[in-house]
Amino acid sequence: MDGGRQLRGAQADVLPAERQPQGRDRGRPYSCGAADGPVSSAKFNRPRGIVANTRTGEVFVADTSNYTLRRIYGNSVSTLAGVAGQSGNTDGVGGAARFSSPVGLAMDRQENLYVTDYSTVRKVTPTGEVSTVAGTTDKTGFQDGKGAAALFGRLGGIAVDENGTIYLADTGNHCIRLIIADGTVSTAAGLCGISGAADGNINAATFDEPVGLAYYGKRLYVSDSTSQTIRRIR
After folding, report:
1. Do residues 62 and 69 touch, judged by C-beta distance below 8 A?
2. Going from the N-terminus, what domains does the chain have, and what CATH number goes with each?
3. 9-29 pLDDT per residue, tens
4. Is the CB of residue 202 less than 8 Å from the CB of residue 170?
């Protein structure tokens, strides 16, 4: 088929202003800070995780080095929870809560946010109430169990399925963990503490510093950073 003929009669147009792609929509490049306000002047400090509420149009950001969760809505940036420059592990509402290293973000069907906060998993309601779902801030390791009895290594990405099950990339332990509704943590795939890149049954497969997670079509996709691969769990 003649590619040149296919293009004959085609017309290139400039997109209307409201449809033009924007390279930098929020924040100023290479200018870190913690300022809320108009998107043109708001600042972040090493933001990492990000998730959108497709119903409301809100975008939430894990502002890792500010120890906060930020909210972008319309042309404004605000702080949903935590206080910039103040790390910790306190549960509470809005500015009363503290985070130590928020990285991964996911949202469930009730519009609650879930955050991987180094060695803990935190829940943030739409009103900004923060609670700890599992893990202990001052202790890392590997242990399945319920709530604070569970231990994680350095946590990365997070995803939530249609049933509310939470999946975690336990980067430091080289495995994938999950949390069910009552807060019980178990190992979903991989051999915690053993790195590798072997495919196979979930009890035999190995990962090497898994970081990113995405859940789609009843399958979990994993960016396995050190093995330079994308893995699929089904």
Report:
1. yes
2. 32-134 (2.40.10.500), 142-233 (2.40.10.500)
3. 333 322 233 333 454 555 667
4. no
